[in-house]
């Protein structure tokens, strides 16, 4: 970056929008017309959080991990636990 660029008042992510909502691209052409295209994710597209993406950089690694998990799910019996309900929540200690 050049020294004359001042980012002291910049906002990180000011125009960020989640990809799952889709996005619109406006292309200004030389003849003065504007081409507008709206893009949405195709069905079956899955977005990974950045911390997960560190471990699974591509589709193959994600699918392999999920197939392993599916195999484990079939082998482990499902246990249902009774949940105890309390009558009230105590947020802080009483003095």
Overall geometry = elongated
Q: Please tally the β strands and state the result.
A: 2
Number of helix segments? 2
Portion in helices? 10-25%
Beta content comes to 5-15%
Uncertain residue segments? none
**Largest β sheet strand count, sense and barrel closure:** 2 strands, antiparallel
Give the topology string: H per helix, E per strand: EEHH
**Mean pLDDT reading:** 82
Brief write-up:
With 95 residues, the chain is α+β, with helices and mostly antiparallel strands. The chain has helices spanning 50-53, 59-75; strands at 23-28, 34-39. It has a domain at 19-75.
Task: From the structure above, extract its key features.
95 residues; alpha+beta; two-stranded antiparallel sheet; 2 helices; 2 strands; 13% strand
Explain what you see.
With 95 residues, this protein is α+β, with helices and mostly antiparallel strands. It has a domain at 19-75. It contains two helices and two strands; from the N terminus they run E-E-H-H. It has helices at 50-53, 59-75; strands spanning 23-28, 34-39. The protein has a two-stranded antiparallel sheet. The longest helix has 17 residues, at 59-75. It is elongated, with a radius of gyration of 25 Å. 0% of the residues are buried. The model has no long low-confidence stretch (mean pLDDT 82).
Secondary-structure topology with pairs:
Layout: E1 23-28, E2 34-39, H1 50-53, H2 59-75
Antiparallel strand pairs: 1-2
